Amino acid sequence: MFFSKFFKKDRDHSYYLAQADKSLAAERYADARVDFLEAQSRCPAEAVEAAKRIKQGLCQAGDRLAELNLVEGEHAVNAGEAKKAADHFDLALELANDTGLKARANAGLKSLSQPRPSAAPAKSAAANHSHGGGSCASCGPDKHAQELVDPEESDVHEDDRFFLLVQPLPGDLPTRYAALGEKFVKAYLLIHEGNDAAAFPILKEMLVSSENDIVIYELALIMYRGGRPHECEELLNRALKLNPSNAAVYLALIHLKAETQNFPEAIEIANRMLGLGILPDQALILVGELHEAAGNQADAMEAWSKALEYKTVAKPAAERLVPLLSSQGRDAEAKYLAKQYLKGCC
Known about the structure:
18 helices, mainly alpha, disordered N terminus, globular, 0% strand
């Protein structure tokens, strides 16, 4: 679920590993890969089992993202966009662990080196249509791919990394983030490299020309990470006034309130999302989690029961309801939900 990370605090590897596992189970492979990489960077040498899990997770997420790049690459070939296809096949090689996926990517790259007299002129690669970036923990980039990519195209991987990072954002935010231009891309990547100090003046400069809820939102998160939660909240509310439909701002406010155990206000914000029809599926899961954290088990179960109506969150809602029903002796209901929504689960 998207309510997994807004504010990057000084957590250990186990926190990010748990978040990555959740994203992987929910098939949010880009989000999972980011957290696996974070877990890997924080994993101590003695945590052998955790390191093994991180490596496996990186390869699994990488394979899934490689598959997406292969599909995009094949579409680009059919459209006559050779440069774009090469970028995707190259990324697939970097991300893939599976030998079959690597073979498909190599075959795609090889096909681009063959004369194609009937092909349309190649178009320039659109940065916001590609996936991936980086390599699987156990397998580095393929040298053959590097030979086929123009070495002067130094921004290919940077643009694709930006695309990879913004895809888990809710609603229309991935498109809106991509439309903010090169300065914002630079600031956003700096943030994800842990360099808030360098990103801050870039974002502040962007606000000089015009107010923008996304830029203000990213500044708010920098304030939080800098130990200034009150300024963070002020900026989030400012962003919300500019754009009352920005789902990420609502989710960040909920997270901020929940971290201080101000559950009534957090629940009110989540209910506001429901009233406005903003991510109602995720909002219901959140309402349930907040009620549970506040000790209101009945209200939590009510929210998760409503969430069962949404296919997107029916499984996580059932996963929360089944153990609660079982603990109340409602075994028949628990078994029904498990059979209906949790088929194939361990």
